[in-house]
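Bit of a strange request maybe. I'm writing a small parser for structure token strings and I need a real example to test against, not something I typed by hand. Could someone generate the tokens for this chain?
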Amino acid sequence: TFVEDLDAIRGALGAETVDLLGHSFGGLLALHYALRHPGSIRSIVIVDGDPATWREWNHFRQVIATRRTSEEAERLEGIQAQQGWQRRPQAVEEYYRIFLRPYFGDPEFASDLRFRSDLGEWDLTDTLSSITAPTLLVYGAKSIFEVSAAEAMHAAMPASRLEIMPEVGHFPFIEDAAGFRAVVLEFFR
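Reply from user aminoacidic:
Good idea to test on real output. This should exercise your parser:
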């Protein structure tokens, strides 16, 4: 459904091809779009995108567990124990601020960003070689995903370039906005 929504937007804009940028789940969505609509893609930028396989994606749970402090885990449990906490904006903001701290290379960048639920199992590895659009893969050295997952996608995609940004986590465009902008602009040049 997300793929077809993207294609409907492309069509409504009257664009024959598009440059598609996706972060996190949006990166996985960009891969699915490119696989289903290869003639509609001019280029792709994937920013710390979900790995091409469910197995590689699932590893992030271990990374988060090692980065979250026991105090943070206790506070999250305390918030969740409060009936109706999801309907109280202050509680939601506090929850996500704590929840997302491990996603950053520097946890002080954490904000009230939202997260998605599990999407089941997938493996696009065998199909990535069919994506011929120029593709930039941007990952943080302190990503929640293993660098090897990004390297595997890069190896499978013939027209891809991989940039690992030092000292940043899952949100390179927040933690090093100038560096991120420079990498993306260089790619488009």
